[in-house]
């Protein structure tokens, strides 16, 4: 692992130019060995072992997390292929990032976080307790933490810059940002992805409480350069293909609950990073979420349990044993 940092990422990747470093993922652009020019149509998407919570990146990587996210997303992309095209071009990647990286189409990402909820918890529960609604969608009285919603709802948020908080958006806000046609398309796609996900996960003993998905479009289909400003309200989803990107239905982008232990009114047994959220909010962490300070490193037992839950989610959903890239 000397060529990699503690989050499982390469220090350098010969033949690639760094493009972006996010909370969890790194993007690299391929460089042509013949011309030395950057390929503007493709990206190498590498998932690190970093983990974030409450808009902070935690100073404790989760071993193999990046590989779990990558392999699970690939599996889900196949399950969703009849609903929506995705950005994956291939899995032939440099050995240094094997198992945690894919080659993808370079897209312009829509400026809205698309979220769908089938159960009430987290930020949605907080908003419901304050207003009786989530993202402007009224909900029945008397719902508790973990309650199943009468029907899944679309609860989008803004895409805040690093270090800032995403803010809830109503559907009307999304229409203002994207135009009515594109807003309707991404709402329907997001609800459809959650429905398909729960249909499959239910057979495997998992409930998907909520999920966040990302969409993009090929800039060439809009006749714009990769960096040119886009007026999203002019994009017609019947003429321009909406593409599923980033990750999908993973423990980072979704809340997975153990179906056999689901009981509204309490914290559910989860396969996602709720384990570390709960520790951070406990007295044991000594961290005050309202302080503005970064959370402390995680104890070894929380790291181990979080990794175990991620791996269990992968194996339960796919029916396949997880093999760490370091073991291949």
Describe the protein's topology:
Blueprint: E1 16-21, E2 25-30, E3 42-47, E4 51-53, E5 56-58, H1 65-79, E6 88-90, E7 101-105, E8 108-109, E9 112-119, H2 122-131, E10 133-134, E11 137-138, E12 148-154, E13 157-158, H3 171-178, H4 180-202, E14 206-217, H5 219-222, E15 243-245, E16 254-258, H6 274-281, H7 300-318
Plain-language structure description:
The protein is α+β, with helices and mostly antiparallel strands. The protein has two domains: 16-105, 2-Layer Sandwich (Phosphorylase Kinase, domain 1), CATH 3.30.200.20; 108-259, ATP-grasp fold, B domain (D-amino Acid Aminotransferase, Chain A, domain 1, 2-Layer Sandwich), CATH 3.30.470.20. The protein is 27% helix and 23% strand. The protein has seven helices and 16 strands. Strands 8, 9, 12, 13, 14, 15 and 16 form a seven-stranded antiparallel sheet that branches. A hairpin with a 2-residue loop joins strand 10 (133-134) and strand 11. Helix 1 packs parallel to helix 7, helix 3 (171-178) packs across helix 4 (180-202) and helix 6 (274-281) packs antiparallel against helix 7. The longest helix is centred in the middle third of the chain and has 23 residues, at 180-202. It is globular and about 60 Å long. Mean pLDDT is 92; it is low at 1-6.
């Amino acid at each position: 692992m000397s060529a990699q940092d503690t989050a499982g990422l390469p220090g350098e990747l010969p033949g690639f130019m760094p493009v972006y470093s996010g909370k969890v993922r790194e993007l690299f652009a391929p460089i042509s060995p013949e011309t030395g020019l950057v390929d503007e149509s493709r990206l190498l998407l590498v998932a690190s072992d970093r983990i974030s919570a409450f808009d902070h990146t935690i100073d404790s990587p989760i071993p193999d997390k990046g590989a779990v996210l990558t392999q699970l997303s690939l599996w889900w992309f196949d399950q969703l292929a009849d609903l929506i095209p995705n950005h994956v071009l291939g899995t032939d990647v440099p050995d240094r990032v094997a198992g945690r990286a894919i080659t993808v189409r370079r897209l312009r990402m829509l400026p809205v976080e698309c979220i769908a909820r089938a159960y009430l918890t987290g930020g949605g529960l907080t908003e419901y307790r304050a207003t009786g609604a989530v993202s402007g969608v009224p909900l029945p009285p008397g719902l508790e933490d973990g309650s199943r919603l009468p029907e899944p709802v679309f609860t989008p948020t803004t895409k805040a810059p690093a270090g800032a908080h995403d803010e809830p958006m109503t559907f009307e806000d999304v229409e203002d940002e994207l135009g009515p046609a594109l807003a309707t398309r991404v709402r329907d796609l997001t609800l459809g992805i959650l429905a398909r996900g729960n249909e499959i996960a239910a057979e495997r003993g998992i409930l998907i409480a909520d999920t966040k998905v990302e969409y993009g479009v090929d800039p060439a289909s809009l006749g714009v350069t990769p960096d040119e400003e886009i007026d999203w309200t002019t994009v017609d989803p019947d003429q321009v293909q909406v593409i599923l990107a980033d990750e999908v239905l993973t423990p980072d982008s979704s809340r997975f609950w153990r179906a056999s232990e689901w009981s509204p009114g309490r914290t559910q047994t989860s396969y996602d990073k709720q384990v570390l959220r709960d520790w951070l909010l406990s007295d044991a962490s000594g961290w005050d979420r309202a302080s503005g300070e970064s959370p402390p490193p995680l104890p070894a037992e929380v790291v181990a349990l979080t990794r175990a839950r991620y791996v269990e989610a992968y194996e339960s959903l796919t029916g396949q044993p997880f093999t760490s890239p370091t073991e291949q």
